[in-house]
Amino acid sequence: MPSSIRTLIFLVAMLALWSAPATSAPRAQAQVTGELFARPGPDAHVQLALRVEVPPGFHIYHEDLGPKDAVGKPTKAVFQGVELVGPVQFPEPIKHTQKGAGADGKDTWIWSHEGTVVLLAKGRMAPESKLEGLSAKVSGLICDEVGCTPFSSTLKYKGPGEDKLFAELTQPASSTSAGAPAANPAAQVVGQSANGKVRGKLYVRASGDTVDAVVEIEIEEGFHIYHDELQGTEADGMPTEVKLSGAGITWQKPEFPAPDEYSVEGVKADGGAAVTLIQEGTVLVRAKGKLATPHALENARVRVEGQVCDDAGCDQFEF
Question: H or E stretch including 13?
Answer without folding.
Answer: helix 3-16
